[in-house]
Amino acid sequence: MSQLSTSAILIRRTDYGDFDLILSLFSHTQGKISVIAKSAKKSTRRFAGVLELFSELDAVVTAGRGLPVLQEASLKNPFAQIRTVPSRLAYASYWAELIQDWMEEHVAHAELYRLLQHVLSELDQGRVPAAVLSILFQMRFLRLSGHSPRLEHCVGCQCELPAMRPDVLGVDIAKGGIACPACTPACDHAQHLSKGTVKQLLWVSGGDLNRAARMKFSPQAIAESLAFLERFVPHHLGRQPRSLKILRQLRGDER
Q1: Domain extent at residue 244
Q2: 3-state helix/strand/coil string of 33-83
Q3: For a Cys staple, 180 with which of 79, 154, 170, 212, CB 3.0–4.6 Å?
């Protein structure tokens, strides 16, 4: 890479020395890239008000001796309202951390870029509940990363969803999906999903983004979906995202 011009979303920023910043950009054309913004903390002209978390930028990056260097950046979509509401900031931080931890450097993923762009835009405008956007993001992120939960049949006996009885199903996180009563693991904190919630999770995992984001979830479906996904994702990621703990504390439901 001699020079790269691309749209990118700023998903992480770290102080480096007295004046520089190390940035993680999720770009439309190159996937995740780490860059250095030299003198970004002292410059009042080059990057003033531009390098805010979750902003979408038009960035120009050139090769350096070490990290690529961010030469220019202009705001494309500031998504400024996200940073004014703690709960919105927490949700955006959680999504960004998943991308930061799971995606490899310089692997383009246009569909995931569009997904992040979409949920940040909706979160910024406040038209769709943040919890519903998080359900949408997590389900689609799991599909795009090859870790979709198995929700169409029992992970034990393979009984298909329509044939399962009763209407409240068990969950086997380790095996990656729903379980019929006979196959549900015996434990003190067994989790359950109603059939209606399972069908909604399947629906939002694909199809048109705008329609999926506007699907009506009942309070019960939101609670069930978040509880399931926020256990499923860390288990299959292999670690607990730090931002998830903060998000749960803000919601008052730390588990």
Answers
A1: 81-149+187-251
A2: EEEEECCCCCCCCCCCCCCCCCCEEEEEEECCCCCCEEEEEEEEECCHHHH
A3: 154
- Over pLDDT 70: what percentage of the chain? 97
- Domain tally, the chain: 2
Helix, strand, coil shares, percent, the chain, to 5: 40, 25, 35
Residues of the chain above pLDDT 90, percent: 79
- Say if 164 falls within a structural domain: no
130-144 and 195-204 are packed helices; what angle lies between their axes, rounded to 10 degrees? 70
pTM, 2 dp:
0.94
pLDDT tens digit sequence for 76-124:
999 999 999 999 999 999 999 999 999 999 999 999 999 999 999 999 9
CA pair distance 72, 70, nearest whole angstrom: 6
**CATH number of the domain bearing residue 229:** 1.20.1440.120
- Kindly give the residue spans of alpha helices, DSSP state H, lying in 145-253: 195-204, 209-213, 219-237, 242-251
Which distant-in-sequence residues (6+ apart) come within 8 Å of 25 by Cβ? 8, 9, 10, 11, 32, 33, 34, 35, 57, 59, 61
Tell whether the model's pLDDT for residue 43 goes beyond 80.
Answer: no
* Residue type, position 146, single letter: G
- Between the alpha carbon of residue 221 and those of residues 39, 132, 225, the distances in Å are 48, 10, 6
Q: Do 152 and 126 meet the contact criterion of CB atoms below 8 Å apart?
A: no
